[in-house]
Specification:
Length: about 280
Amino acid sequence: MVIFSVVGTKGGIGKTTLTANLSALTADMGLRVLMVDADIQASLTKYFQLRSDPRDGLTSVILNGRVAETAITPTMWDRLDIIVCDAPRRKFAGIETTDLEQFIQGRIDAPMILRRALRSPMIEDHYDLVFVDTPGAQGPLLYTAALAAHRLISPIMPETPSAREFRVGTIELLQKLDEAQALGISPGPLTAVLNRVGHTNDARQITDEIRTSYLDMKGLVTVAETIIPASVAYNEAATAQLPVHRLKRRDRVSPFDTMHELVWEMIPSLRGVYAGGYSEDGGE
Ligand SMILES: Nc1ncnc2c1ncn2[C@@H]1O[C@H](COP(=O)(O)OP(=O)(O)OP(=O)(O)O)[C@@H](O)[C@H]1O
Ligand SMILES: [Mg+2]
């Protein structure tokens, strides 16, 4: 079981979109996937239709430090479950949502809460992959969600100010996460993924610049080869509550291909496996 947390220190860069699409595609490839909505905006919770009303969610996981079966809700897609962010609607043991960050902060074991809950036999036995969506601002919820992961993914938009902010924000975040070394926890390596790259962007040049600027980060940050173009498909898919690889569109670069490339790059053992479980060598 591998846990990916999708992080960033900026809002609106595509974290939720990426979390939802990577999760749904890998589930479609045949893996058992759990999404965790660790952002109190609860955008991931609303992304796909659920098979039933959630009985429980993130609040109970954070407060109890473990994932009860009732905290997991199946989505309408096969093999894809979610721990919803129920925080905005829930009062649990007298604690309201906005208090969730405060609650985490008040705990001595704050950085380990989600890590311990997700790296448990119950999750290990039931899932191959876990994708955690996180808030766009630094805080205890982002830290505990990021430290739960074996690997971090961070979308980055190609505009230069945004790229610069990304570097500063990412360094700050990684430095912060590094404080957990004192507790014996090493943050996972981070892969930056260029997202919403328009026709006018010289994507290759910007990618090279970003890649070079990360050379001094001792391999902690790598920039993915796969680039996600700007396409209304991502928005249309979200509106239709569909994973983007299922949307029928004729883009210059199809989101179907892009998302497959990205999954193959992140998880090389899946290379050649397509949605529907078909592999290039004809097997299933
Ligand atoms: N490759 C893309 N091309 C075009 N639009 C995109 C792309 N990726 C994401 N978007 C759009 O960008 C907007 C923001 O995306 P998203 O909600 O995933 O960002 P976020 O980082 O999760 O934001 P927040 O910080 O608020 O949680 C959405 O409208 C989404 O449809
Ligand atoms: Mg989001």
